[in-house]
Write a structure and sequence with these properties.
alpha+beta; Rossmann fold; 6 helices; Elongation Factor Tu (Ef-tu), domain 3
Amino acid sequence: MTVLNIAMIGSDDLAKGIAKATDQRDVHTYVHKESGADGVRILSIIRPAKMPERIRPFFNSLCAARVGLLEVTAIDATFGEVLVGFASAGIDKGIFVINPPQGEWIDEDQVKAFIAQAGLTSWSQSGSEGIELRDALYGLMDEISSDLEQAKQEPLVVPIDQHFNVKGIGLVAIGYVQSGSVSVHDELHLLPAEGPGTVKSLQVMDDDVEQAVAGDRVGIALRNTKEEHLTGGSLVIHPAVEDKNKGISIPLSLEKHEKSSLELTISPFQKRILAPGDVVHASVDLQFVVGRVESIDSGLEVAWDSPLFIRKENPPVVLLAQLDSKPRIMGSARLTRLS
């Protein structure tokens, strides 16, 4: 089973033309399944419902997604900010649909010019019919199939966005597998609590499974885990392995940052320049952490209010924002931990 997670900015109607609605929280989700030559292929649309009022759900969708889908209903500040978000997150493959309200008109050439200026030159235009969009999204899945498979081989990272107790099952944590795979009976390590856990059972798409892999939205039934070890920003990884007799030494897959040096790539639409004392927000692997700029003398240095965990292997870019600026998204950053 292969899953393509799609970050979408657009209407509920457009999403429902492509896939079936499954969840209606801050982030609305829609799923479409098809059987192909290599098994079941799933389109999973992640649509933040309150953009631009709330930017964090948009960041969460960008963290989980591999491609983008944008319904253009106007050329305005929100359109520009959304383009900045997709570009800063490295979502370089996507589809846009020009769909003005009835009786209104949008300049197609202007839309394409802004998309190109944002750096999204590989995005393609589509009509608004569900079947056409579905075919185009499956085409993108084929284009990045090797990347999707590679992500399954990397160390496990599962950011948790929900957890609750289920009668007869116990503590269940839910999140998107960002990388790697997790299997029933695996030993786990929970951050930032540094707590343990064991996989009792797994569910993907309401089905019990023996293993969940990168791209899956998984429910993990946990044994030997205290509920206080889980928060909305918890991360589930495999524990470090140290066996001197076998010569095995595998460290934790995430590195804890309390202070970082940032190599920042500024959005082409962003005019604001960061200064010492400025407050910033970082988003990566569904974490949303506040930091304060401490120095710009020998590079941008930021101290975080709470630890930020960055993958050691193939780390994704970190989205950087200032919630009081316009546009709010500064750009993307690569982080180096400072002691």
